[in-house]
Amino acid sequence: MYDFVSQKKNYMLSTRIGRRGQITLPREVRRRMKADEGDQIVFIIDGEQVVIKPITQSLLDLRGSVPVSGEQDFDTIRKEVTAKRAKRGSRDEG
């Protein structure tokens, strides 16, 4: 259940938070976001404001969109990243 107040192009919608912290996005919000059941959304916290946006692309979708020079050895890159994370994790623990 939600309240709907329309003012030209701007809308204010409200909904209630359920017992387990769940909310239902009103139909108009889902329609404007082009969001369907099972889609993922992200909550962007900006000070006192929270913005809800659909996740429309994954990192795999973006693969190849950044130009690089030469061949990329992803096994080596993955190992370097893992080593850096391990080093950072051990430094944070000590």
Which features does this protein show?
two-stranded antiparallel sheet; 94 residues; alpha+beta; Pemi-like Protein 1, Chain: D; 3 helices
Please describe the topology of this protein.
Blueprint: E1 2-7, E2 10-15, H1 27-33, E3 41-46, E4 49-54, H2 59-62, H3 74-93
Antiparallel strand pairs: 1-2, 3-4
- Roughly how many Å is the radius of gyration? 21 Å
Main sheet: strand order? 1-2
Proportion of residues in helical segments: 25-40%
Total E-strand runs: 4
Assigned CATH architecture of the domain at 2-54: Ribbon
Structural class, judged by helices and strands?
A: alpha+beta
Which CATH class of the domain at 2-54 applies here?
A: Mainly Beta
Percent strand equals 25-35%
Major β-sheet, in short? 2 strands, antiparallel
N/C terminus separation: 50 Å
Can you write the helix and strand succession as a string?
Answer: EEHEEHH
Mean of all residue-level pLDDT scores: 82
Structural account:
This protein is of the alpha+beta class and 94 residues long. It has a domain at 2-54: Pemi-like Protein 1, Chain: D, CATH 2.10.260. It has three helices and four strands; from the N terminus they run ββαββαα. The chain has helices at 27-33, 59-62, 74-93; strands at 2-7, 10-15, 41-46, 49-54. The strands form two sheets. It has a two-stranded antiparallel ribbon. A hairpin with a 2-residue loop joins strand 3 (41-46) and strand 4 (49-54). The radius of gyration is 21 Å and the shape is elongated. The mean pLDDT is 82.
Brief account:
With 94 residues, the protein is α+β, with helices and mostly antiparallel strands. It has a domain at 2-54: Pemi-like Protein 1, Chain: D, CATH 2.10.260. Helix content is 33%, strand content 26%.
